[in-house]
Each structure stands twice: as C-alpha cells, then as structure tokens.
TrEMBL record:
The keyword Hydrolase applies. This is DNA 3'-5' helicase. Pfam families: PcrA_UvrD_tudor (PF21196), UvrD-helicase (PF00580), UvrD_C (PF13361). It is an enzyme of class 5 (isomerase). Residues 6-291 form the UvrD-like helicase ATP-binding domain. ATP binds at A27, G28, A29, G30, S31, G32, K33, T34. Its EC number is 5.6.2.4. It catalyses: ATP + H2O = ADP + phosphate + H(+); Couples ATP hydrolysis with the unwinding of duplex DNA by translocating in the 3'-5' direction.
Length: 775
C-alpha cells in the first residue's frame, strides 16, 4: 500500500481520518472533496472496515468507476470490488432486485427509460381521448417525475387540493388520472421508471422495517459526493439508511447546486447539521485544480449571488493566463474561433485534443462547434446526446431481451410485436391493450389466452399473434440454459432483426448492423467479465439493468484523444486543461427561461461557476452578436456573467477593428457589396463599400442583421434588396433547396417572393433574408 495519506493536505486529512460519526465537508470547486471521499474509503478499509459495509454514492457511474479504480490502486483489486459504489439509481436498482418482491415487483423488473415512459404516457393520453397538444407527454412526464421526487404518490396527489388546483389551472384537470393510470400500467408491466427506483426504495424502507434494518446494518459507512444536488427522495433514503450508525460523510459545494430544476434541494446541505447529532463540519479552502486567474474569476462571479455560504477558495497554483473573452459575429464564427484556437494552442503548447473541452448551456449549440471542428479534422466527441443504448436498433434488440425476461413489459412488447413486420397492425395492438385493461391482465397474458378472451380478431390475425407468442416462449426456454450472449445472438438472427437492418444496404443500414454487433460484443464482455465476481452471475437481467442506467458519459468508447463537447450540467465534477464556455449571451446563458426570479438567476450563475471551475490552465468565454435560434437569426447581447468577472482576471481579445466578410451580411442581401471591404468603425456599425465603382462608403448598423438599416441613406439604396430577381427565375435557397419564383411583391427591405420549392412546396420569403442564389 502506497503512502496515500501524504497526498492530502492537513485540512483534507482531518475528514479523511475521522472514522466515525456524521460529518459534512463544504468546500469550493477543485478543493479535493472527491479526493477526500476516495481516500477516506481506503482509510476506512485500512482500519478494518469491511468493504461490504461501505456504500458510496456518486453523481455518475463514471465517477464511481474512477473512484473504485483509485481505491483499488491503494487497497488492491479484490477488496475494492466488494465496495457498493455507484449512482443512487444504480445502487438502489440492485437493492430492488433483491427486495422488490415485498412491493409486488418481480426480481427481473424492467427499467423504463425516458423514451419508454413517454411512449406509455402517450398511449394513456390517447386511450383517455385527451388533447395531446394540451397534455404534452414531455410535460406530463416531468410533472410526474417531480411528484415522485417529492414523494407525492397518486394517493397523496388526490388528497392535495393545491396540486389538483394547479393542474386544473394549467388546463390539465385529468393530470391525476393520468398519473394513476401510468403508475398502474408500470406496475402491471413489472416496470419501474427512473424516479421509481428512488420512490420505491423509500417505500420499501418505510414499509418494511426489517428490510431497513438489514440495510442499515449492511451499510455502516455511507459517503455521498455532490450532496448539494440530492433531491428529497434521495435525501430520505440516505437519512433512513444512516440513521442507525450515523456514520455518514457527505461532501458538497452549495455554489455548485445546479439541479434545482430537477428537484435537487439545496436545503439538504444547509440543514445537514440539524439532521444528525454532533455533526463535524469541515471546510477545504485550497484549490488544486486551477490557476490564480481562473479561481479569482470564479470567485468574483459567485460573489454576486445573495444566497450562499461564506467560503474561501484560494490557490497556490501559478498565476496563469487571464480568462480570454472573445466576441464573434455569428455562431458559425464562434465555432471557427473555437476550432482555430484549439488547433493553434495544441500546436504551440504541444497539447492533446483531450486537453480541451467545449461547454455549452444547451445541446443545440453543439452543431456550429462540430461543423468547425470537423472542417479542421479535430476529433471530438459529444457527450450527453442519445446514448448508444437509446439508438433505435439497440432498443429493438433489447426490447426482445426485455420481453424474454419480463413478458409483462408492455413497452417492449409493443415495440416488437410487429417488428420485423409480421402483419400485426396498430388496430390489433389497440384491441389487445383494451382487452388487457378490461381483463386486468398483461398484454402477453392476453396473447397466451386469446381463445378465452372476448376480442374481435379474425383467425388470420390470431394465428400471427400465436406465432409471436411461440417465438418469445421459445426464447424463454433457451434463456434457462444459454448464457446472455448466446441468447442475444440467436434472437437477433432468428427474429429477423438482422435481416431487417441489412435489408436496404444503405450506409445507415450498415451502421445499424455495426451497432448491433457492438451490442453483442458488449454482452459478451459482460458475460465474461462478470464470471469472476461472486455475487453477480453475468445474467441477462444484470446486463439490461446496466443498459437502462447507462449514461452517455459512461460508455467512453473509441479514441480517447478527442475534444469533449458537453453541456455544463454534465461537466460537473470533471476537469480539463483548457475549457471553452460558448454562447455567453443574455437569454441563452443565463437562459431566457430562468430569469424570472432571483433564485433561478442565481442557479444560472452557479452553473457558470461550475463551468469556469472545470478549467485547469485556461478558460475561454465566447459570445456572438447574432445567432440562429429556433430557425431565426436573433440579436444577441453579451451575458451579464462576463461583466460580473472582476476586470483583473479577464482579457478581452475580440478583434473587431477589421473583419473579414461576414457571411450573414451576404452579398445577396446587399446586391453588389464588395465583401471584404466591410470595416467596423464602432463595434456595432459597419462601413460597407459596394462594388459599384461610384458608390460611397456607407454605414450600416450591424448589431441585428435582421434589422439592418443604413445610417446614411444613399440615393440608390431603395432597390438595395430587390436583387435582379424576376418571376420564373430558378433559385437555390440555403435550406429549402431549389425552387421557382412564382411572384414578387413589395419593395426595398419589404420585398418578398413566393417560391415553389421542389421539396416542401410554396413559401413566401423576405428577400432581404432569403439569400437566394439565382441559377
Ligand atoms: P469539484 O467541486 O469540482 O467536484 P473537488 O472538490 O471534488 O472538485 P477534486 O476533484 O477532488 O476536487 O480535486 C481537484 C483536483 O485537485 C484533482 O485533480 C485532484 O487530484 C487535485 N488535488 C486535490 N487535492 C490535492 C492535493 N492535496 N495535492 C495535489 N493535488 C490535489
Ligand atoms: Mg468533486
């Protein structure tokens, strides 16, 4: 065992070496909270605590794996393996496998992912004949999710006039009924959604004192990372489990609480000292991650929040470069700035792609960055998109596996009953659902007992349904003896899935096949890898659980030398040498949807604090003057967060004196402009010389290309926007493609053309934006 304790400073040692009792470590970013948790676990083991008695809850499975790896380095692999470590969801899913039967769930219950849950809600809304534009599945889903995370069961909902009233006000009087139907259908399907994993664990621990006692006894030492982002449901689980021995250590940073919108409750950290007796409070102040400039910048921003705990963060690290702020004209320019800076910095400082991360507020912002990185051949990876396991073809295969294990799984069944096509139509499926509801049976039971069920289906259809049952049953028989890999391989071939994916021979089809192959490889790894572990048997159920809970951050496949692109929410706890925070504009970051109350704005500011503190050596902040959002070009103002940084830590590098031609000021807007003669006098006006030899320089306000207007009107600019377009012209539009001009109306800036596009039909376009190319 190496002398790992020497790698901690004194402040870090104190909580690490306190073996028993409740304790909380509150400290700023990069001060070693996660390191303390990790080393504390190793220390506990060195003091004779059995690994089986330690529970560590982390924010991502990736974090848990890294922590386990580090502990394995210290205490050895075989001991580290016995630790219970993972996210709340993965740890409690395991416990529910063992104990779910108390609540009426089979041990092989399915975990519905968001997609499954929303599909189920969609069918319920349809069956109840409700307006799907009012009852939007996504909104209903997040509403149900927030009930569950606040432990509001269906029963509690109906006893709460305020909730009922609120939903009625939101024009959703049937919300409670949908909630009830959803819970009922999940239960009948032997399925739990993500929130159930916490809700049902709470139910288990409250209703069954013996079970609670058993796990209290098992988890004598409990550690929680990122405690500031636990929700009410998670808080109660931890409190129940820790109640007996009170050996609970939580670490967190109130300034990094960024999940209030998903029910995280900052009070969990603020009230911790009230929840347990004799809580020891530790603070860490020294940041080891970042330069003085980054730490200083982050501190100066978070100062603007009123609600916060007093905290000091300082660093002995080098001064470093100042935080660089760059202004671009458009999101495309912003992408190019990011890509070229990465490219140059990499060359000049001999860095790797993986030293860089680009963080954004919303996923949609990644596209412009991706385009620019691709143009420069810089490898990148987007985290947090559709995870591998949510791809259609993968969900198709796993739906078969899910149904084999749990024939009650309604969503799996609906997905594959007619895929590949077996001539079983949607009407038939609808009838089956109705029959299942009427008879209080699962759909699969209805299928098995077709002859005894009152359902109007012709014999042909009945036979097809019977064939489907026979197929699934044959897989179930195979599952009793074969291992998960053999079964999965057999299923993909014999069900016709492989043939289906292969059918069109398109590149997409080939990719789908490759993905299925990758899935099979994964199952093989799983089967082989798990065999050594005593309490896991590499079963299909365990594999599917892993799949259901895998986040994109977990499956770190492919070349590790890539630039990481992700939302700030996902970046929590991570660190990178060079970090770009893009899209620092009002309405985007802070988000336009989070500026109504001080608390929302303060959460946005904490988010910015999280982003900035991911950087070790260099942080870049970028914003643009105009950006495409919701398909429209909109005006953008720099984010207030930039201004909130103390001047001494930032370096404004924006070169706006002379710019190359801005594609947004496309020549097609102005007719004959000589593109690279655009000069910027003031940041927001452009001096433009038109190609016409005799023309003078003209000033244009460019802050909003949409509202672009000449400052000094020249004689001939009335027809500035008319182009030379005439009816009958064949034109090309950037997005809509080729089309024919049917009609032109209006003059000058208001000139519009009606164009019939080959794809998408007729559209009326304002010429000054349309950027049409005459063919
Ligand atoms: P965050 O708030 O972002 O989650 P944290 O408080 O959990 O940060 P860590 O991730 O544990 O901080 O540590 C930040 C960085 O500093 C890591 O790279 C870690 O290895 C390093 N570090 C922490 N403590 C020390 C120390 N005593 N000596 C050297 N490096 C340290
Ligand atoms: Mg951490």
């Amino acid at each position: 065992m190496e002398n790992y304790l020497s790698q901690l400073n004194e402040a870090q040692l104190a909580p690490t070496l306190q073996k028993d009792g409740p304790m909380i470590v509150i400290a700023g970013a990069g001060s070693g909270k996660t390191r303390v948790l990790t080393y504390r676990i190793a220390y506990l083991m060195s003091q004779g605590v059995d690994a089986f008695n330690i529970l560590a809850l982390t924010f991502t499975n990736k974090a848990a794996r890294e922590m386990k790896g580090r502990i394995a380095d210290i205490v050895g692999d075989s001991e580290a393996k016995n630790l219970w470590m993972g996210t709340f969801h993965s740890v409690f899913a395991k416990i529910l496998r063992f104990e779910g039967h108390h609540l009426g769930f089979p041990s092989n219950f399915t975990i519905y992912d968001t997609q499954d849950s929303q599909k189920l809600l969609g069918s319920i809304i349809k069956e109840m004949n409700l307006d799907k534009d009012i009852y939007k599945t996504k909104q209903i889903y997040s509403r149900i999710s927030s009930y569950k995370n606040s432990l509001i069961t269906v029963k509690a909902y109906f006893k709460n006039p305020e909730l009922i009233e609120a939903d009625a006000m939101a024009r959703r009087p049937r919300m409670g009924d949908i909630y009830a139907a959803y819970v009922d259908r999940c239960f009948k399907a032997g399925a739990m959604d993500f929130d159930d994993l916490l809700l049902r664990t709470n139910e288990l621990l409250t209703r069954f004192p013996n079970v609670l006692a058993q796990y209290q006894n098992k988890f004598r030492y409990i550690l929680v990372d990122e405690y500031q982002d636990t929700n009410h449901s998670q808080y109660l689980i931890v409190r129940a489990l820790a109640d007996r021995f009170q050996n609970i250590c939580v670490v967190g940073d109130d300034a990094q609480s960024i999940y209030a919108f998903r029910g995280a409750n900052i009070n969990n950290i603020l009230n911790f000292q009230k929840d347990y007796d004799d809580v020891k409070l530790y603070r860490l102040e020294q940041n080891y991650r970042s330069t003085k400039n980054i730490v200083g910048a982050a501190n100066s921003v978070i100062e603007h929040n009123k609600t916060k705990l007093d905290k000091v963060v300082w660093t002995a690290n080098e001064e470093g470069e100042k935080v660089k702020v760059n202004r671009s004209l458009t999101d495309g320019d912003e992408g190019r700035y990011v890509a070229s800076t990465i490219w140059e910095t990499k060359m000049n400082q001999h860095l790797h792609n993986s030293d860089f991360a680009v963080l954004y507020r919303t996923n949609a912002q990644s596209r412009a960055i991706e385009d620019a990185l691709r143009k420069r051949d810089i490898p990148y990876r987007i985290y947090g998109g559709l995870s591998f396991y949510q791809r259609k073809e993968i969900k198709d295969v796993t739906a078969y596996l899910r149904l084999i294990l749990n024939p009650s799984d309604e969503e799996a069944l609906k997905r594959i009953i007619n895929y590949p096509a077996r001539g079983i139509g949607q009407t038939t499926v609808d009838k089956l659902v109705v029959a299942a509801n009427n008879y209080g049976k699962t759909i699969f039971e209805v299928l098995q007992q077709l002859e005894n069920i009152d359902i109007s289906l012709n014999n042909g259809t009945k036979n097809k349904l019977k064939d489907f049952v026979t197929l699934i049953e044959s897989y179930q028989v195979m599952n009793q003896n074969a291992n998960a890999f053999d079964l999965a391989e057999h299923v993909t071939k014999s069900s016709g899935l492989i043939r289906e994916f292969n059918k069109d021979g398109t590149p997409e089809g080939i990719t789908r096949l490759e993905n299925v192959e990758e899935l099979l490889n994964g199952i093989k790894d799983f089967v082989e890898g798990q065999i050594e572990i005593a309490d896991a048997n590499g079963s299909l159920a365990e594999f599917l659980e892993d799949v259901a809970l895998a986040t994109d951050l977990d499956a770190d496949k492919g070349d590790p030398n890539h630039v990481a692109l992700m939302t700030i929410h996902l970046a929590k706890g991570l660190e990178f040498s060079h970090v770009f925070i893009v899209g620092l504009e009002e309405d985007l970051f802070p988000s336009g949807m989070s500026m109504n109350t001080r608390s929302e704005l303060e959460e946005e500011r904490r988010l910015f604090y999280v982003a900035l503190t991911r950087a070790e050596k260099q942080a870049y902040l970028t914003y643009t003057l105009s950006r495409y959002r919701w398909g429209k070009l909109i005006d953008a103002e720099p984010s207030r967060f930039i201004e909130e940084i103390d001047d001494q830590f930032v370096d404004i590098i924006t070169p706006l004196k002379e710019q190359n031609f801005n594609p947004m000021l496309d020549a097609s807007i102005f007719g004959d402009i000589e593109p690279n003669k655009i000069r910027f006098a003031k940041p927001k006006t452009a001096t433009i010389k038109r190609k016409d030899k005799n023309s003078k320089l003209e000033n244009f306000v460019i802050s909003t290309p949409k509202k672009m207007k000449p400052l000094a009107k020249s004689e001939d600019n009335t027809n500035l926007f008319d182009h030379k377009l005439t009816v009958g012209n064949i034109v090309r539009h950037q997005r809509f493609g080729k089309g024919e001009v049917l009609k032109i109306e209006g003059k000058g800036g208001d000139a519009k053309a009606e164009i019939k596009f080959e794809v998408g039909g007729s559209k009326k376009l304002l010429l000054r934006f349309a950027k049409l190319q005459i063919l």
